[in-house]
Design a protein that fits this description.
The complex is a heterotrimer.
Chain A (H helix, E strand, L loop, with lengths): L18 H22 L3 E6 H4 L7 E13 L7 E6 L6 E6 L12 E9 L2 E4 L4 E4 L9 E4 L2
Parallel strand pairs in A: 1-2, 4-6
Antiparallel strand pairs in A: 2-3, 2-5, 3-4, 5-6, 5-7, 7-8
Chain B lengths: L1 H28 L2 H30 L6 H6 L6 H6 L5 H22 L8 H20 L29 H11 L1 H12 L6 H30 L11 H26 L3 H24 L13 H22 L16 H31 L5 E3 L1 H21 L10 H24 L6 H32 L3 H11 L1 H25 L2 E7 L4 E4 L2 E12 L4 E11 L2 E6 L2 E5 L4 E5 L1 E4 L5 E9 L5 E8 L3 H18 L3 H13 L8
Antiparallel strand pairs in B: 2-11, 3-4, 4-5, 5-6, 5-7, 7-8, 9-10, 10-11
Helix pairs in contact in B: 1-2, 1-6, 2-5, 2-6, 5-6, 5-7, 6-8, 7-9, 8-9, 8-11, 9-10, 9-19, 10-11, 10-13, 11-12, 13-14, 14-16, 15-16, 16-17, 16-18, 17-18, 18-19
Chain C lengths: L1 H22 L13 H28 L5 H28 L8
Helix pairs in contact in C: 2-3
The chains are: A alpha+beta, B alpha+beta, C mainly alpha.
């Protein structure tokens, strides 16, 4: 250290003057992207019970939660798997037409979550969005889904 | 025995409360006796928790169905391997494992920092004791592994979706990650409460952060691979709340790993770092809350609604507490220096942090959106993949770019002339890659093309770093190339280990982009002898093959696969029936080709007439996704590996100043 | 019954292990020292010194790998050395004024 030329003392205030401005701009643009996207891109869908969905959502895309009361057909057929979901508390039902992969746990009596578009009293399901929950005696157990 | 187990946990909880109180007394009253007593209490808690583990596991293997949890998740027919993994297959059991890991980590950090951070010990024990107490409370009240009932003749068995070798690795790996992030948080809080503004806690927490971050990353990758194979759908990431629960703390921890480097070099971002480490821990607890409370619909959910309240209170305490501590010690956390130039590595780390936190925030928003919309009185709304993918692309691509720019820029200030030279080859590689992709016809997905071009840019940057570093060594020390690379890496482990981790991210991105943007998907209904085409592969259905397993019966579709006309191999996608658990499962057939792509077959259904519904995918280069994990682990090991030279330096620095602690 | 007995024994053992350090009265040696203001200052100076020295080492690597040009290199070397020197000088001053028992021999 003895042979260093007269060392210039460090000015503590030295620094990129505009760094705070740059950071503020960066944060603002991140938040701005966020705000613009959430405001204009229509990416969220309502999650509804069957009773809620039966009025006011015709033609809209929704996610339904309910219990399967009957099911016929095959999801692989052109006509699809046709099943009925009932509200957890009330007696309202909606019919669902579904094509795509059927989760392993699916059967009458199970709770399901399904996405689709409501047309009258029928939900035209989006393929591969069927999620089934398997209840157990002591606590609700694992859910299984088939979504590609 | 259940009574002993429950009693042990209650005793452990009491000890945790005591340890916290004794440690606080030691800290405020400066009484070593209370500190020693608190340490004894920690050891006792560890012993009691291990006792609880032993009792619980013994009950599992003895098929003691008087334990409610054992009856709910095992059966007599369950193979031994899955009997063991059922330890964490339930809410209560997994919390027990969590607490065990927490106590082991606690003991390790308390012992290892005794001398170096003696002054912090009381507060360290207090914070960790409080965290342990919280989890023990969960184990006593809402989620007891020792709840009893009249034993049924057989248990309900383990959900077939969980009967997969990954059940042995994915949850414990994640738990280690989630738990270990508590240690840097505790060290930070202890340093602040003790009024120490120096970087000692940062140095001590570095390995813990790396380990937590590494285990979270590997845990997520293991889960991805499992989801890819097991659940019957061709997807390794679904933006499911539980998946996001691990991603968020991981992203924040990534930011923290970078920003501490700025603190170490320039004494800046001290407040930001404490906030980040607190945020990572809070997100870890929040993630656990999401996973276990059942408040959000998920593929993975354990469901038990009362436990959610406990987590919400804990989260509030953590956020309020860490904020209070930061505000209290704000004077200690003044920056020593400033950023001097936008073209400096500090600046790139700053932007890297903003982007990482930005992605984490976007993911968080997506996760809580249903809760927020519901709380605001209107209908619950949810977002899905497109939302998350947008932000990952918009924030992730610049982040990827920074990964390539950062290494080219020196600390403090980069010389623009040098920069232009350094940029040349990587930029060329990126542009050429982009051009080639478009020309070859793969320009259909612009994010894909951009991502792959940036990957080329980053790869060439990293390679050039190694080459330049080795060349510098050679010109000084005259070593051979291999020796030079080895010594270079050995002496600058964090830097060059970090480059390997970056390379693993690049490999991951290539695999992810290739397998999603350029995937082929076909669905077919096949009678015996029928064929279907997937990309270059021809699939011929030869019939159904029945077979038997230890607790299931199986029906497989025999598919002869030909590639370009030549016979390739036979694949057996199947469906299994588990009589005891009263459920079926889908066993997919995956063939990984030499080029790293996957031929992925799902047997969607077997019709009465013997026809099968087959869903087939070809996913190019998806192997890279999984291989990136090995590269990631390698780079991480390099960064984490004890460095004798560095340790000596650190020990010397802090030993020069006889900072008090206790010699014992 | 035996379970309750086992728990009781466990509880007693644990309480003894935990209370044992508290049984004896406090001695002056039991006082946990906190770092003094002077010690913290010196620790900060040592960190400043080491950070500057490590920055020098990193600068060498950056210069050898052509991330930093010759001009910038000379300027930064001078700065880092100055910083290290300042920290060492300040440290020496501090140690010069510190009471004898505080210093490492």
């Amino acid at each position: 250290m003895s042979e260093t030329p007269a060392p210039a003392p460090e000015q503590p205030a030295k620094g990129f003057r505009h760094i705070r401005l740059v950071i503020a701009l960066a944060v603002a643009s991140l938040l701005g992207t966020f705000a613009v996207y959430t405001a204009f891109a229509d990416t969220s869908i309502p999650v509804l019970g069957i009773a809620q969905a039966s009025t006011g959502y015709d033609g809209k895309e929704v996610r339904l939660e309910g219990r399967v009361t009957k099911a016929t057909g095959d999801a692989a057929d052109p006509q699809g798997l046709r099943f009925t979901v009932r509200d957890f508390e009330k007696n309202t039902t909606i019919d669902v037409v579904y094509r795509g992969s059927v989760p392993d746990a699916f059967r009458v009596g199970r709770e399901v979550v399904i996405d689709g578009r409501l047309q009258g009293a029928t939900l035209q399901a989006t393929p591969d969005t069927l999620v089934t929950k398997c209840p157990s005696k002591y606590q609700e157990g694992q859910t299984t889904t088939d979504a590609a | 025995m259940a009574l002993v187990g429950q009693g042990a946990l209650i005793l452990a909880f009491a000890l945790a409360v005591y340890a916290t109180g004794a440690a606080v007394t030691a800290g405020t009253g400066r009484d070593r006796r209370f500190l020693i007593s608190a340490r004894h209490a920690l050891w006792a808690i560890l012993g009691l928790v291990i006792l609880a583990d032993v009792i619980f596991i013994r009950a599992i293997f003895a098929h003691d169905f008087s334990f409610t949890t054992v009856a709910a998740t095992t059966s007599r027919a369950l193979p031994d391997f899955y009997l063991f993994t059922s330890w964490w297959g339930s809410q209560a059991g997994s919390l027990l494992l969590w607490t065990t890991i927490l106590m082991v980590c606690t003991i390790i950090v308390v012992r290892s920092t005794r001398r170096a951070l003696g002054e912090l010990q009381p507060w360290l024990i207090a914070v960790l004791g409080a965290i342990a107490g919280f989890f023990l409370l969960l184990l006593i009240v809402p989620a007891s592994p020792f709840q009893t009932q009249i034993a049924p003749s057989d248990g309900q068995g383990l959900n077939p979706a969980l009967q997969n070798p990954y059940m042995a690795t994915h949850p414990p790996t994640l738990y280690i990650g989630y738990v270990a992030i508590a240690i840097p948080f505790a060290l930070a809080m202890a340093a602040m409460i003790a009024g120490r503004g120096d970087a000692r806690w940062v140095v001590a927490s570095r390995r813990w952060t790396l380990i937590a971050w590494g285990f979270l990353g590997i845990g997520m990758l293991l889960g991805s691979h499992w989801a890819y194979q097991e659940v019957g759908w061709g997807g390794y990431w679904a933006w499911d709340p539980v998946e996001n629960a691990a991603l968020m703390p991981w992203l924040v921890a990534t930011a923290f790993l970078h920003s501490v480097m700025v603190q170490e070099r320039k004494g800046m971002l001290k407040v930001w770092n404490i906030a980040l480490v607190s945020g990572a821990f809070a997100l870890s607890i929040f993630g656990t809350f999401i996973t276990r409370s059942g408040i959000l619909s998920s593929v993975h959910a354990f469901v038990s609604t009362s436990i959610g309240w406990y987590f919400m209170v804990a989260l509030a305490v953590i956020i309020a507490g860490s904020t209070a501590v930061i505000l209290w010690r704000l004077p200690l956390l003044r920056a020593d220096q400033r950023i001097e130039s936008l073209v400096s590595r500090e600046a790139t780390f700053l932007f890297n942090n903003l982007l990482l936190v930005g992605i984490a925030f976007a993911v968080l928003w997506g996760v809580v959106y249903p809760l927020v919309t519901e709380a605001l009185g209107s209908v619950r709304e949810t977002v899905s993949s497109p939302f998350y993918e947008f932000f990952v692309i918009i924030f992730g691509l610049p982040l990827l770019l920074l990964m390539g720019i950062g290494p080219l820029i020196a600390w403090r200030r980069a010389s623009l002339k040098q920069l232009k030279r350094s940029f040349l080859w990587p930029l060329a590689a990126g542009l050429i890659t982009g051009g080639v992709l478009v020309v070859v016809g793969l320009g259909s997905s612009w994010p894909g093309v951009v991502a792959l071009s940036v990957c080329a840019f980053v790869t060439v940057t990293i390679l050039s770093e190694y080459i330049r570093g080795a060349a510098a060594r050679r010109s000084i020390a005259g070593e051979g190339w291999l020796t030079a690379v080895w010594r270079l890496t050995d002496r600058n482990r964090r830097r060059y280990g970090g480059y390997i981790v970056h390379l693993s991210i690049v490999v991951f991105v290539i695999g992810a982009v290739g397998s999603t943007a350029y995937e082929t998907r076909e669905v077919g209904l096949l009678q015996k002898g029928d064929t279907m085409q997937v990309g270059a592969y021809t699939l011929t259905f030869q019939g159904v093959q029945p077979s038997q397993g230890p607790n299931y019966t199986q029906r497989a579709a025999v598919i002869d696969v030909a590639k370009g006309g030549e016979p390739y191999k036979q694949m057996l996608p199947a469906r299994r029936n588990y009589p005891r658990e009263q459920t079926t499962s889908n066993e997919v057939a995956i063939d990984t080709t030499l080029t790293g792509g996957d031929l992925f077959l799902i047997l969607d259904g077997i019709r009465a007439d013997g026809a099968v519904q087959i869903k087939a995918f070809y996913k190019p280069v998806i192997l890279l996704l999984w291989l990136s994990g090995f590269l990631f682990t390698g780079g991480l090991l390099l960064c984490v590996w004890p460095d004798a030279r560095e340790s000596r330096r650190i020990v010397r620095r802090y030993a020069e100043e006889p900072i008090p602690g206790e010699a014992r | 019954m035996i379970e309750i007995l086992a728990l009781g024994v466990l509880a007693i053992v644990v309480v003894v292990a935990v209370a044992w350090p508290l049984v004896r009265p406090a001695t002056p040696e039991d006082t946990l020292d906190a770092s003094t203001e002077a010690q913290r200052r010196r620790l900060q100076l040592r960190e400043d010194r080491d950070v500057a020295l490590e920055a020098l080492k990193e600068l060498e690597l950056d210069h050898a790998t052509h991330h930093v040009g010759d001009e910038d290199y000379r300027e930064l070397v001078a700065q880092y050395r100055a910083r290290a020197a300042a920290a060492i000088r300040a440290l020496d001053e501090e140690l010069g004024t510190a009471p004898a028992g505080d210093r490492q021999p």
